[in-house]
Amino acid sequence: MAQRIGLGFDVHRLVTGRPCRLGGIELPHPSGPQGHSDGDAVLHAVTDALLGALALGDIGTHFPDKDPRWKDADSRLFVRHAIESVQKRGWTLANLDVVIATEGPRIAPHAEAMRGSMAELLGCSPEQVSVKGKTFEGLGALAGGAGVAVQAVCLLEKSPDG
């Protein structure tokens, strides 16, 4: 069976008063990701992983931040577009692995909800989605809750009928 791997990465500053949307859910936290859309860095990285696996460009190619249509847009739209592009080309998601690095909101208490939200969005089982939280150990520009960085990797398999 043919397989393709995609890697996505995104980083956003955390700003006070902005909703903290990560992985398709809202986390209780006083700051959230700043961005042209809703700033969901997790879903942005997932979108890039899916698109990248098939060399379809990146989120900025499909949803440019200069386009006012995407101002405050729900990032679930981006993931839906990416997974539909994958399926239209005869591929299926085998698994998705996401690492969320931040000293802002704690990820572990919300990892299962994120897995469920993303699995529903992607049309797969939560067992196919992994979410892990990490900290910066006080190092670098994103330490102290200044931001969130996300890496996502996916494995696509050619659909038997694709």
Account of the protein in words:
The protein has a single domain, classed as 60s Ribosomal Protein L30, Chain: A (2-Layer Sandwich). The protein has a five-stranded mixed β-sheet. A two-stranded antiparallel ribbon has the order 2-3. Helix 4 links the parallel strand 5 and strand 6. By secondary structure, the protein is an alpha+beta fold. Helix 1 runs parallel beside helix 3. The model has no long low-confidence stretch (mean pLDDT 95). The protein is built from four helices and seven strands; from the N terminus they run ββββαααβαββ. The termini are close together.
State the main characteristics:
single chain, 162 residues, alpha+beta, 60s Ribosomal Protein L30, Chain: A
Helix and strand topology:
Elements: E1 3-16, E2 20-22, E3 25-27, E4 31-33, H1 41-53, H2 59-62, H3 76-88, E5 91-102, H4 111-122, E6 129-134, E7 147-158
Parallel strand pairs: 5-6
Antiparallel strand pairs: 1-4, 1-7, 2-3, 5-7
Helix pairs in contact: 1-3
Summarize this entry quickly.
The protein has about 160 residues and is an alpha+beta fold. The protein has 4 helices and 7 strands, in the order ββββαααβαββ.
